[in-house]
Design brief:
The chain has 377 residues and is of the alpha/beta class. The chain has one domain: Aldolase class I (TIM Barrel, Alpha-Beta Barrel), CATH 3.20.20.70. It is 33% helix and 14% strand. It has twelve helices and eleven strands. An eleven-stranded mixed sheet has the order 8-7-6-5-4-3-2-1-9-10-11. β2, α3 and β3 form a beta-alpha-beta unit. GO terms for molecular function: 4 iron, 4 sulfur cluster binding; catalytic activity; metal ion binding. Keywords: 4Fe-4S, Iron, Iron-sulfur, Metal-binding, S-adenosyl-L-methionine. Pfam families: Radical_SAM, YfkB. This is Radical SAM/CxCxxxxC motif protein YfkAB.
Length: 377
Amino acid sequence: MEKYEMEKCRITPDWDPWDAWYTRSEKGKYELTSVELTVTNLCNLRCEHCAVGEQLVEKDGIPIPIDFILNRLDEIETLQTISITGGEPILSPKVVKETIIPLLKYAKSRGIYTQINSNLTLPLSRYEDWIEDVDVLHISYNYRHAEDFYRMAFGNFRKEVSFEVAKSLFERMKENARTLSKAGIFVSAESFLSPFTAPYIVDMHQTIQEMGCKRHEVHPLYPSDFAKGMSLLTLQEYREAIIHLLDHRHPDLWILLGTLPFFPCSNQDEDLTLWKRIFVDESNVTARQDPDGRNRLNVNVFTGDVVVTDFGDIPVLGNIYKDSLTEVFERWLAHPVAHKYHCYCQQARCTGPNILVAQTYYPDWVFKERKALITLD
């Protein structure tokens, strides 16, 4: 075996290679196992909830040569996953040919898992020649019908877009998801919970199941960029929405609760009950321990800047022109913000909060001084 070769297991509720829990619990420390690459700032939508919307442009800059990026990735012996994001990564055929396909081939040669984030509204032919090399095709789904999509997806668009065009894109997204799912592609649909989506989350869950998706991801609305002005759920409302979804979910559709805003060190019994239900009582339900800043960094392929996440407010940590990614990751682990939020409770299977979630919902909590009040068998 080559020094980088890894055995690649099937992604299931028992094995989510993006989850920071595995390395932290097995190694006793965080390691850089995941890199997210922002490969474009172009997008054909301007969603009202977009957490990177202010970075979107009409024309991309000149990217760093892909061979240089691959050499930087090759330095990371612990690398297990690569995520490809934007913007809409598939919008530019040049980006697909010169950046995405080489990244996928590289990952395949190393046995590395890959995810690409796409709105899936482009013609199916734009995906067919290379999508089989992607482990997870991640889409967003926050709509009841085409009217919702029209309002939400073009909420910040500067050009006039007709409802007929929006409806066509909406139907294409759903049909593409069905077709690719039938072809064996792992399609994972993410919904954010907000005052608008929470009442309809079960309906969205049903549609996601009908599209053939393998997984339904549920996250908070991240108050970043375009989404900064949107209303957030209270913790009580969020808890009620999750419980409602669990009570009415499709049993064969994996639910992944990302950046869950509840913790086993809570003094509220309903939080502890929910934590136990998610981790012990339910099948096909998981809560991913936050990868951002625990086992993942984001790289901008135009500037080379390295940050904790593509939608956070932590200043740039380094640049791949002068820093190796492992050096940047060690620098981050020594950062005061990392020290503030990198708590860990083995007995409760918790690695602490997402930074944005903590700042939004728990500004007064000192997480590292708290202890889990529940033990999972």
